[in-house]
Design brief:
Largest sheet: 10 strands, antiparallel
Distance between the termini: 47 Å
Strand order of the largest sheet: 3-2-4-5-9-18-11-12-13-14
Strand content: 25-35%
Radius of gyration: 24 Å
Number of helices: 7
Helix content: 10-25%
Structural class: mainly beta
Shape: elongated
Number of domains: 2
Number of strands: 32
Oligomer: single chain
Length: 514
């Protein structure tokens, strides 16, 4: 066999070491070589990936194929988005170039494993009409120091493959993980990734085996506010064999921007759930025990389809974020899970963009008021609303993060700008009924227009003013500590001409949370 790269050699040696240990009776396989990616690590542990999906990066050191496919609205043309290099990160610039001057949706997510279990837009099912593709630019994020895009699912979006190869069926063992976000969730069914029915219908207990992530509490009690990592085993989101949580300390992940969610199931009498902060630390096991005690779950009856973003019967009311995920043949060891988590942390999801204090795309900034009353106040989000409040170097980490924004090309016009939340990936400042809020990008033309602001010289003669793209005589203004798009005079209190020019003029500063 000809090994073309040092990385391939490392992976080969790791597999050889594993086999040697097994033959010698040395117990658990050793950790794979340093530099290995998730599917290399799982293969070295004897549980190879049968599905490997990511919009962000390669999941094998040797992979150099396409990650996903986009289709542009202008002419219906499609193209695949690949990697900057083998084993590396997505070539997001290729997407930006292809989609320039129009919008794109994601039509296919390629499987990096040799099984070719590619996901396409999901068709109609027992509980939902045919889905639509997610907007390709809705979830810009930094990974590995590169600007890439994740997948942002809104209600009515989902992906599926009903004709797979190698995925567990009829009680076979499997493991799976996904990197998702605790900031873009709801309590609707069902943001899943994993094993599902092959006919888009609910065919009974135990016919699914998928990770679920959200705030839906199917079996009471659930503790805390969530979101929780749960197992969608069909006809229930399970936190234990009884369904409800037996773990009072499992209150959910909270609004962590990046979460590792993990499920493994031997298909017969045991499943386990884990989660971790995808930016630091290890994994926490929230349940490890028997299959659900209700009938049909022991043994399992998996059918082997793969679903992403919906339930097995295409219940598609959920929202969620997806960056990467894999499914394995067999149950990975805890050591392999820990090694994969360490690799995920090394990606540096949501790390600094490398640019600060300007209105260039990708720059991280804070926006300071220039009105004499409020020169220590900055635009921040609070309970989804945009407000101004005092932020200093002694402010809490939360306050400083809430007051930091990432400049993006205008979602409706690339000559303007949009502002993405630093700690809520995929959420942008947008106006609704003239009030400015922080909301997740849903891909609609209305959202794009509402979230686009066109900079010009400050109306007071200092700083920068931001005209609303779709209401060009209205500008981003603070009034009574809240944010609006306001005209200079009008019937609304926030349109008052008093100090209008100062209130719509902003200082673009270095970010409070770079």
């Amino acid at each position: 066999m000809l090994l073309r790269t040092p990385r391939a050699l490392l992976s080969f040696l790791a597999v050889c070491a594993t086999l040697a240990a097994l033959f010698l009776g040395a117990g658990a396989p050793p950790a794979a070589a340093a530099g290995s990616l998730p599917c290399d690590l799982y293969a070295a542990a004897g549980t190879p990936c049968v599905a490997a999906h990511s919009l962000v990066r390669a999941l094998y050191t040797s992979y150099n194929g396409p990650l996903y496919q986009v289709q542009r609205a202008r002419d219906g043309a499609k193209t695949n988005i690949g990697l900057l290099s083998a084993g590396g990160y997505a070539n997001a610039a290729a997407q930006d170039s292809f989609c320039s001057g129009t919008t794109c949706i994601i039509t296919e997510i390629h499987d990096q494993s040799p099984r070719h279990n590619d996901l396409t837009i999901e068709g109609a099912g027992g509980a939902g009409a045919a889905d639509v593709g997610a907007p390709a630019d809705a979830l810009p994020v930094t990974a590995g120091g590169h600007q890439v895009y994740g997948l942002e699912i809104s209600a009515g979006m989902g992906y599926r493959d009903n004709s797979t190869s190698g995925v567990a069926v009829n009680g076979q063992a499997e493991g799976m993980y996904m990197v998702t976000s605790g900031t873009h969730v709801n309590n609707r069914c069902c943001f899943d990734y994993g094993n599902a029915e092959t006919n888009n219908m609910d065919t009974g207990n135990g016919h699914m085996d998928a990770i679920n992530f959200g705030t839906e509490c199917w079996f009471s009690p659930c503790y805390g506010q969530g979101p929780w990592v749960q197992a969608d085993l069909e006809n229930g989101l399970f936190q234990s064999d009884a369904g409800y949580s037996k773990n009072t300390s499992n209150t959910g992940t909270g609004p962590l921007p990046f979460v590792t969610a993990l499920l493994k199931n031997n298909g017969q009498n045991h499943f386990a759930l884990k989660y971790g902060n995808a930016r630091s630390g290890g994994l926490t096991t929230t349940y490890s025990g028997g299959e659900p005690t209700a009938g049909g779950y022991s043994p399992m009856h998996q059918e082997g389809a793969i679903v992403l973003g919906t339930g097995g019967d295409n219940s598609n009311g959920s929202i969620g974020s997806f960056f990467e995920g894999v499914m394995t043949a067999g149950i990975p060891t805890d050591a392999a899970d820990d090694a994969v988590q360490a690799d995920i942390v090394s990606v540096g999801y949501g790390g600094p963009t490398g640019s600060t204090g300007t209105l260039g795309p990708g720059s991280e900034i804070s926006l300071r008021a220039t009105t004499s009353c409020c020169t220590g106040d900055y635009v921040r989000h609070q309970n989804d609303a945009a407000v101004i409040s005092t932020v200093t170097s002694s402010s809490s980490s939360l306050d400083r993060n809430d007051a930091t924004w990432i400049v993006r090309r205008g979602l409706a016009d690339s000559s303007c700008v949009s502002f993405e939340s630093r700690n809520y990936p995929g959420d942008f400042l947008r106006h609704y009924d003239y009030r400015v809020r922080r909301q997740p990008m849903d891909g609609t033309a209305q959202f794009r227009a509402d979230a686009t602001f066109c900079p010009q010289t400050g109306k007071s003669g200092t700083g920068t003013s931001f005209a609303s793209y779709n209401y060009p005589t209205r500008y981003l203004r603070h009034y009574d500590h809240s944010l609006y798009i306001a005209s200079n005079g009008g019937t609304n209190a926030f349109d008052s001409a008093t100090s209008w020019t100062e209130d719509v003029s902003w200082a673009v500063t270095a970010p409070w949370a770079p």
